[in-house]
């Protein structure tokens, strides 16, 4: 697809691109670039919903922790502290573009329940009638029941994209797209994928230190989204400046087509 017509776009920001490369804490430079890209897309007439990770990572420093813990209770406590820091950062950065953040925290159960999911959808649609609002969605980590958690935000973003009938879901991550061979990044990502099943074997278990999902989780989320009619893109969140080009059909990324 090569178009600049207004689209409904879900942007997913993974933990791996919201944090510094060499320290387990949020990277304000990265966050600024991502917010700038959101503002650019909105200015071009697109409707944008952000699914943002980063609550747990944002809670580490305030709680004097240097590493991501593994026990669920501490992770939930970290998310409770970190989510407010994250939203504060978004609100501050969006102000430069006369935009405001709208926080939506949802659980797996909310989106599985017909009535609650519909309420999320209508709230989202009402919010988007205000051009100055950027909805930022995260899992409600501190109350999510362990066995029913999304855990990573890949699946959450595909659920949101389907619920909202988005045109496009862009998973922004630390990789430039889906690589055939992770030891040969110079080959660049696979440009276009028609069938996720055919490429899933390229995804390795390896992932960033603070991220939870990894590439396998992303491809499963992509499959869910394309099955629901949403075209998907995996692209580097470290090159947010290329987002308008990616939305228009170009850029360095992997594009997953919807089967017709
Ligand atoms: N075939 C592949 N191509 C690109 N990245 C891959 C591949 N297989 C595994 N990965 C890993 O997936 C990571 C992205 O997932 P993750 O760390 O969970 O990021 P995020 O926090 O953005 O969700 C990459 O940094 C890379 O280590
Ligand atoms: N909801 C969690 C997201 C967990 C996470 O790291 O997800 P991801 O970056 O998609 O691998 C948070 O905000 O920390």
Strand arrangement, major sheet? 3-4-2-1-5-7-8-6
Strand content: 15-25%
The set of bound ligands, ions and cofactors reads: adenosine-5'-diphosphate, the ligand N[C@@H](CCC(=O)OP(=O)(O)O)C(=O)O
Query: Any idea what the radius of gyration is?
Result: 17 Å
- Please state the second-level CATH architecture: 3-Layer(aba) Sandwich
Low-confidence stretches: none
- Please give the largest β-sheet: 8 strands, mixed
How would you state the average pLDDT, rounded? 94
Total helices: the number is 10
Q: What is the count of distinct domains?
A: 1
What's the β-strand tally? Answer: 8
Distance between the termini: 13 Å
Can you describe this structure in just a few lines?
With 260 residues, the chain is α/β, with parallel strands linked by helices.
Task: Offer a few descriptive terms.
single chain; 260 residues; alpha/beta; Carbamate kinase; eight-stranded mixed sheet; 10 helices; 8 strands; 40% helix; binds adenosine-5'-diphosphate; binds ligand VHF; Asp/Glu/Uridylate_kinase; nucleotide-binding; Glutamate 5-kinase
